[in-house]
Specification:
Cytochrome Bc1 Complex, Chain A, domain 1; 12 strands; seven-stranded mixed beta sheet; single chain; alpha+beta
């Protein structure tokens, strides 16, 4: 078998055994493009893959369909029962997981390299030939419905659910990935098979591979696993958020503490200002014990146990999300402090010391992505999925180094806006 190897190699120097990381862009015989890192330091092969679409593709009234489908992919095939399939995974040193996100279906796969032939065959069957057995459907539906009830009984989870429902308004992201108890009841086996074909299309595949296998061998296995998937038209791009809710909304329940999730418009992942916004957010609420929100609301006032904010980017848009829990009588006080910190960072208040500390953190923390073959495979998939470019690993530190206080303050002033904030309040605030 021949492979078209794009003459592109990137070397990233990092502190893992004082070695370097290379990736190759490979195109298999069946035309599947993927990024690959050969690593023989441990006898493991890892794959991270995704299919664009995810829960966004769920039909109205059948929310949770994609999540139900992915939850069934390891519940047996036409040749193997669920018990036999999972036993074979265990015997062959295979780890396999699937998940449904708002914008994609994702999966990870690991196998001991000495068992790669059997391992990749199991992955092929899970993806291409799931049985969607009626008994398994009923079992998994019950599991998900129980999980939904547990989420609804936890104020933090409930606050996140209510936040999505209200913040995203009429956008499909307002829906819960798991669906609802009512929507799951409406889903039939035919629906599951249909969404399987729609989501798991070769046209929507993004793939990263790392581990103890040669580039010639991995191309064959990639073709085996993914080469027979349908090549439907690529899923439509998920539309930008036309309007996001602002202000606040209260969902009253009897509880000694109130959970609050808040957010506003953000940036798409490949926006040129994303790193500056991420640095600014680290200073505001993403830097754990070092952030302004934590120091002022937790350390100085003792009003919360934890408080945070983070950038949540997608391909075509993004949001900034945060949250906290506090006593019922402290809710308005903490909300005011959040707004004040939002106003403060908008006033171009980031100091050189804050910026330098944040830059040091982001440059140093990136090496954590190289701690295993799976973390490397996941990184390769993410960089491709968000179209960050083949030179991302080279230019990342350069971009961070070039950030100065004027630029970061200007971006923060443009992005962070307390007038755009929405607060979802779940509890019994006084």
């Amino acid at each position: 078998m021949k492979f078209i190897l794009h003459c592109f190699f990137l070397i990233i120097f990092f502190t893992k055994n004082a070695s370097s990381l290379e990736f190759e862009e490979i195109k298999s015989d069946k035309g599947i493009n993927f990024w690959f890192v050969e690593d023989k330091s441990v006898p493991i092969i890892s794959i991270s893959f995704s299919f664009g679409g995810g829960a966004f593709n769920d039909p109205q009234g059948k929310e949770g369909l994609s999540n139900l489908m992915t939850s069934l992919l390891d519940e047996g095939t036409s040749k193997m029962t669920s018990i036999d399939f999972k036993q074979s995974m265990k015997l062959n040193g295979v780890k396999l997981s699937f998940s449904t996100q708002k914008d994609k279906v994702a999966g990870t796969f690991q196998v001991i390299s000495s068992n790669k032939k059997k391992g990749f065959q199991l992955l092929f069957e899970a993806i291409n030939d799931p049985s969607f057995d009626k008994n398994a459907i009923l079992k998994v539906k019950n599991q998900i419905q129980s999980s939904i009830k547990i989420d609804e009984s936890n104020i933090s989870n409930l606050a996140s659910m209510k936040f999505n429902e209200n913040f995203y308004k009429n956008h499909n992201f307002s829906r819960i990935n798991k669906g609802t108890i009512e929507s799951l009841r409406k889903i039939k086996r035919r629906d599951i098979k249909d969404i399987h074909k729609k989501n798991l299309s070769l046209s929507n595949l993004t793939l990263g591979v790392s581990g103890d296998i040669s580039k010639n061998e991995i191309g064959k296995f990639v073709d085996l696993v993914f080469g027979e998937l349908p090549r439907f038209d690529k899923n439509e791009d998920i539309p930008k958020f036309k309007s996001l809710k602002v202000g606040k909304k209260i969902f009253n329940i009897e509880t000694p503490q109130t959970a609050v999730v808040f957010g506003q418009q953000g940036l798409e992942r490949n926006n040129e200002e994303f790193f500056a916004a991420r640095i600014a957010n680290y200073i505001l609420g993403g830097g754990s014990f070092q952030s302004r929100l934590y120091k002022n609301v937790r350390e100085k006032k003792g009003l919360v146990y934890s408080i945070y904010s983070y950038l949540l980017p997608y391909k075509n848009d993004g949001v900034i999300v945060g949250g906290f829990q506090t006593r019922n009588e402290s809710v308005n006080k903490v909300i005011k402090m959040v707004r004040d910190e939002w106003k403060r960072i908008k006033r171009k208040s980031i100091s050189k010391e804050e910026l330098d500390n944040a830059k040091t953190y982001f440059k140093g923390s990136f090496s954590r992505n190289y701690t295993s073959t799976m973390s490397i495979a996941s990184l390769l998939e993410i960089v491709q999925y968000y179209s960050l470019g083949k030179d991302y690993f080279i230019k990342r530190d350069e971009i961070i180094d070039k950030l100065d206080t004027d630029y970061v303050n200007n971006v923060a002033s443009k992005i962070f806006d307390d007038k755009k904030l929405f607060f979802m309040i779940v509890g019994k605030p006084n």
